[in-house]
C-alpha cells in the first residue's frame, strides 16, 4: 500500500488570499506517489542560507575530517563513511576540518577568558562557581588575593575564615586559569582588576552574544549626572554593571595619598571583600538601568555586544529619552534603539 | 460525508501543525512550542549543566532527565496531576529513554540535560507532541543529536468493515475523540530513516492491523520531520540575518 500523507491544512484567516498548497488534496487517489516528500529537504542537498540541521549529511567525501558538531555515519548500501551534522548551525571549514557552529550554545570555558560568576558552594579550600558552563568552575583559596598582601603565605586561619572572602551567592569577576581535561575550569582572581562585585546589577545574556575583545571591562562616562559606570562583560554571558570605583593602583589608595606597597595591599583586600554597597545616587542608578536595558535589547535582537555597540546603543537610548528598567524587555522600543545604533555604526 | 473523519479530515491527513523555537528568552538554554491541532505543548531545556543531585552523575556521559507538568486546565475535566501520577511518570520515562539514545551524551561527561515539558492543552497525541517539542527545544539549545526524532499517532477504526472484508485505512494523527474511541498507537522515528525509537500502544488491536498502523504512523513522522526542519531553517536564517547586520 503506497501511503501518502497529506500535509495539515494551514490556518487560513479571512485576510489570507494565497492558494493553500498544503491543503486538502482531492486528487490523491489518482496520483500515486506525489507530494510524499515534496517539502521535506533532501538529505545531502545543500540548502540556501548555509544552515545545516541535525541528521543532514554534510559530505561523504573522505578527504574531510570531522570536527565539532558532526559525527560519522556508516551508510548501509555502499559502506562508505559520511560526515553528518548533529547541530543546527553554519558550517565552518578550517583547512580540511569540517565543523558546525550552533546558532545558540552554552559557554565553553577557555584559558584567559574573563568571566563573571556566582559562588554556589563553599568547600574547605575552594569555592564552586557558577559560570554558565556545563560544569561549575572551581576557585582555589590559593588563587585569590589574600588580605595582607599578594605574597603572603596561605595559612589554616584563612581556611577557617574562607566565608569572609566569598560566601554563597556572591558575585565575582575572575579569569580562567586552567582547564581540566573534561573542560572544567579553574579560576583565579590574583589581580586587582578581579574580585568581588558590588555596587551594581547583574544580568545574563546568551554566551555567544558577547564578542571577544581586548578588554572586557569597560568604563563609561554617562550623562545626566550619572558619573562613571563600570561594565564587566563576562565572556560567559554574565554581565555586571556597577558604579565606577577608583582602582587601587600603585599611584595611591582611594583617598589619593600615596601609601607603601604593603599598606596598599591591606587596604585593597579590605575593600575587595566588603559586602556593603557604597552610596549610589539615583542618577547613577538610572544610568546603570539604562545600560542594562541597552545590552538586553542588543542581545534580544541578535546583535553581538561589544564596546562599540554598548556606546552606540547608549547614545541611541539617550536620544529616545527612555527611562527605567522596563523598556529593555519591551520588544518594540528595544528594537528601535538597536536599529538606531546600527544606523550610527554604518555612518561611522 | 463519505470518507471523512469527525473533524473533516481524511484518513491520511495531519492536523494543523505549528511550531516555534526560542519561545522563552531567559532561564533556559533552549525552548520550543508546538501545536498539533488543539494539543499544545511547551518545552524548555536546561543544560548541559552541573547535575542537580549526586545520583545523576555519570562519569562518561550526560544524564537526561525529564519532567512533565500537566496544566490542570489542559483536559476536558479539571484534573490536577501530581509528580507521582502514573500517566506523568509514564510520559517522563518514555521521553527520557527516547532521547537518551538520540542525544550524543558522551560529549558531556558528568553533566545533566534537563527537559521540562508543560502540557497546556490535550487533544490526543500528547506523547507525540511532547517528543516533537523536545526535539525542537534540543536543537534550539545547541545540543548535538543524531537526527530529528519525530513522533506521530495512528489509529485503526474497528467499526467499519467493507463488504470484501478488507480492513479500512488506518487513521493518521488521531484527536481526543478518536483516541478514546478506537485503538491507537504512538510511533517515533529517527529522521528519514524509518528507524523506530519509540512505539507505545495502550489498547488491543488485531495483529494483522498493526503493520498498517505502524506504516501510516511512520509516514506521518516523515511529514512531521519535513515541517519541523522547515521551521528550524527559517528560524536559523532569521537569526543569521539579524547577526549579519
TrEMBL record, chain A:
One Gene Ontology term, aspect cellular component: nuclear exosome (RNase complex)
Record domain S1 motif: where: 110-190
Keyword rRNA processing: yes
Alphabetical UniProt keywords: Exosome, Nucleus, RNA-binding, rRNA processing
CDD domains linked to this entry: KH-I_Rrp4_eukar, S1_Rrp4
Superkingdom of this protein's organism: Eukaryota
Pfam families tied to this protein: ECR1_N (PF14382), KH_6 (PF15985), S1_RRP4 (PF21266)
One record GO biological process: nuclear polyadenylation-dependent rRNA catabolic process
Region: Disordered, residue numbers: 30-51
Transmembrane segments: none
Any one Gene Ontology molecular-function term assigned to this protein's record: RNA binding
Annotated localization: Nucleus
Similarity section: Belongs to the RRP4 family.
Name listed for the protein in its UniProt record: Exosome non-catalytic core subunit rrp4
Lineage: Eukaryota, Fungi, Dikarya, Ascomycota, Pezizomycotina
Gene that encodes it: RRP4
Automatic annotation (TrEMBL), chain B:
Molecular function terms, GO-annotated: RNA binding
A Pfam family the protein falls into: RNase_PH
Record text on subunit structure and interactions: Component of the RNA exosome complex. Specifically part of the catalytically inactive RNA exosome core complex (Exo-9) which may associate with the catalytic subunits RRP6 and DIS3 in cytoplasmic- and nuclear-specific RNA exosome complex forms. Exo-9 is formed by a hexameric base ring of RNase PH domain-containing subunits and a cap ring consisting of CSL4, RRP4 and RRP40.
Keyword entries, A-Z: Cytoplasm, Exosome
Subcellular location: Cytoplasm; Nucleus, Nucleolus
Coarse class of the protein's main subcellular location: cytoplasm
Source domain of life: Eukaryota
Alphabetized InterPro entries for the sequence: ExoRNase_PH_dom1, ExoRNase_PH_dom2_sf, PNPase/RNase_PH_dom_sf, Ribosomal_Su5_D2-typ_SF, RNase_PH
Single Gene Ontology BP annotation: U4 snRNA 3'-end processing
Family matches, as PANTHER family: EXOSOME COMPLEX COMPONENT, EXOSOME COMPLEX COMPONENT RRP41
UniProt cross-references to SUPFAM superfamilies, sorted A to Z: Ribonuclease PH domain 2-like, Ribosomal protein S5 domain 2-like
UniProt name for this protein: Ribosomal RNA-processing protein 41
Family to which this protein belongs: Belongs to the RNase PH family.
Gene: SKI6
